[in-house]
Specification:
single chain; 460 residues; mainly alpha; Fumarase C, Chain B, domain 1; Fumarase C, Chain A, domain 2; Ribonucleotide Reductase Protein R1, domain 1; two-stranded antiparallel ribbon; 20 helices; binds arginine
Length: 460
Amino acid sequence: MKLWSGRFGKETDALVNDFNASIQFDQRLYREDITGSMAHAAMLANCGVISREDADAIQAGLEGILADIEAGKVAFSADNEDIHMNVEALLTARIGDAGKRLHTARSRNDQVALDFRMYVRREIPVLVGQLLELEAVLCRQARKYQEAVMPGYTHLQRAQPISFAQHLMAYGAMFRRDVTRLEDCGKRLNECPLGSGALAGTTYPIDRFQTAAALGFDAPMGNSLDGVSDRDYALELLSDLSILMMHLSRFSEEVILWCSWEFKFIELDDAYATGSSIMPQKKNPDVAELVRGKTGRVYGSLMGLLTTMKGLPLAYNKDMQEDKEPVFDAIDTVEMCLPVFAAMLDTMTVRTDNMRAAAGKGFINATDCADYLTKKGMPFRDAYTVTGHLVAACTAQGKTLEDLTLEELQAVSPLFEADVYQALKLENCMALRGSFGGPAVAETTRQIAQLEAFIQAHTK
Ligand code: ARG
């Protein structure tokens, strides 16, 4: 019999029973549900709404249920619809009337809002921890490759010389923002919906500040309708995870390119690559491809929940039961991607020789050539044009800028002197880019050190 069967004259249709139930997925919230109920019962007793004996019986009963669930001894039932009613039914079966008093001054609407919020709050440090591990890998690898010249790209065309460390630290900066975004979400969500009731609060003399504090919240939510209707925290988490996956996906794309014979800037460890069932020579970057692929799935979760929420009148609507699976799936997906991606990067072999060879082609020192003339007094725009002509001539002759003789260079501008060859040397081109945030070793060292300090400050 349903907990809410009082006003019904018929049993629920079996199809509806299964259709309506969420226990298959919301059982994941059992710990939050029980913790929330314990705080609620204690507060009810403190406020004189239920007796101390009942509160103690509820506390002991819930502890027993928690232990049994964790020991795998509890079979949840779709007849009890969701985790909230499953726990309440178990409690009442175990302790009788006291169990029936637990739901005083509470609704499943504020209960689910609380449980889900606490679940998201609990996962944020897990995600942050994984991001910091990835950051640590990036720092380690970057420290090794601060002098490794590689072509930096725009439009996927070789553009200007950078170091591999500089490239890795760009991702370091992105993941750092992901950390602070998640932490931000954690701060904003930390208000307690419990005590909002079904939507309109309650007539009992409850103390919402007490439950908020007991459950580690900064304050109770200030409006009971908002308390049960708000899923911003879930949407914020999903959007943070979507941005995070976008970063991982761009990185994956580069790993995939870098593994190709066209680039061969890196080689993945055999343990982090896969073969082909037909082509004996193949070593595929499946991990990076799957991370890139799973990005779509996380975006889907965000789009799905945004769409679910967009037309809902206040306050609770059953549509909102659809909030959990996308959030669970997105969290699971990201928590699967981050460690495997970090391990893949940690174990890769970096082919600095191929990076250097690629940097040698494609005129990535052309800007430096123009800058050389500019520093000798030519207006930059003219220097740009002169260099453009030199590039065209070199392309026609299959040469690089530094292959040109001083006479050939001086034929286009008398400002060229013997020191131009030092200015065109890729190592120098990179080393001289010492502007704040640039690829010069002093700057990558600063970037790495700052990221390491960030990791330290966040690993307590
Ligand atoms: N299982 C429900 C959910 O996930 C719990 C809240 C149900 N509330 C209600 N009024 N039917 O949203």
